Structures are given as C-alpha cells and as structure tokens.
Amino acid sequence: MSRIVVLVGMMGAGKTTVGRSVASRLGVDFVDTDDLVETRAGKSVRDIFASDGEAAFRTLESQVLAESLKSPVDVVVAAAGGTVLSESNRAALREHADVVVWLDADVSALGERASRGAHRPLLDGDVEDRLMALDGERRVLYQSVADVRLDTTGKGIAEVVQEVVAALAKEHAS
Fold first, then answer.
1. pTM score
2. How do the domains of the chain map onto residue ranges?
3. Counts of helices then strands in the chain (DSSP H, E)
4. Measured between alpha carbons, how far is 65 from 130 in angstroms, rounded to an integer?
5. What are the residue ranges of helices labelled H in 69-174?
6. pLDDT tens-digit readout, 102-126
7. 73 vs 47: CA distance, rounded Å
8. How far apart are CA 164 and CA 149, in angstroms?
C-alpha cells in the first residue's frame, strides 16, 4: 500500500516548492494538482477561470485530487489552495491521505510570495485584501483536514522542508 502525503494551504504557502523538495528527500513521486488540472484542460489555471469559470476549475481540481489520492506509489501531493472548499475533497483527504500537512503563513508573507506568479486569478486586484478574505474563509477548513500545521512565516525553503520531513517521521512513528 502506498503512503500519500498531502500539503494544503493558501496560495504562496510554499506547497509546490516545499512538496517537490520533500518528495526528493524521501525518494518518492511528487504531484501538483494545479499542474495536473492545466495538463488535463490544455490551458493555464488563469485561462480556465477566464474561459470556463471557477466552477469548471473546481470540478477538475476535485477529479485530479481524487486520482492523486489513489496513487499506487508513495507520493507527495501539493493540493491547490481551494481544494478544501469542497466537503467531498475534505472527506477524501481525511479518508485517503496518510498525512495532511497544512503549510500556514501570515497574510503579508503569503502576499509577497503569491504575487510572484501571474497564474493566480483569485488574487487579481489588491492581493493582501484578497488573501485576507480567502484566509478568513479557508483557515478553519485547512484546520479540519490537517494532521500537522507548520507556520512557514519568515522561514526559508530548506527549514520548512526539514520541518515537514521531521513531522512526517513523527507521524509515521505514532
């Protein structure tokens, strides 16, 4: 049976960067659900939102999450920031993920990191205001699925990767 680790959190929390490094350290596969959505749709997340709407994106997001959670091999999954909005996604995370790690950070840190990418249509306009609103909606949802919460504020990638690996070792031992 495969071991499935899922990273959740807001845009800019570091799920993709940290997840890729954690997977490399553990010698397992890495999957980013946003990348899978883009591959399946044949267009960027921003283009999916623009041409098909957020509901279409969320449907694809749920499909690729479900597939990722059925991986036949050990995998680290970076789940899209809004994955937790769906009750069925939250239930799937609780049922199929071995460990869900919530990468948390304060809104100003998220804003600085998230504004580097142009593929985040939900952040159009005032990035910090949008992140405050999204954080208000999602914080309790991340908490509801997380086995581990790590605050990434002010930390470098290597430090966060080390904390995730240590948390996984602790979770595996218990």
1. 0.89
2. 4-173
3. 8, 5
4. 24
5. 87-96, 107-114, 127-145, 157-173
6. 999 877 666 665 555 544 445 555 5
7. 31
8. 9
Please state, in angstroms and rounded to a whole number, the distance separating the CA atoms of residues 102 and 64. 19
Q: Which amino acid is at 150?
A: L
Q: What confidence tens digit (pLDDT) does each residue in 133-150 have? A: 888 889 999 999 999 999
Contact 143, 149 (CB under 8 A): yes
Length of the chain: 174
User: CATH homologous superfamily of domain 4-173?
Assistant: P-loop containing nucleotide triphosphate hydrolases (3.40.50.300)
9: left (phi over 0), alpha (psi -120 to 50) or beta: left
Q: Looking up tokens 């999954």, which residue turns up?
A: 77
CB 75 within 8 A of CB 2: yes
| Residue whose token pair is 């909005």 | 85
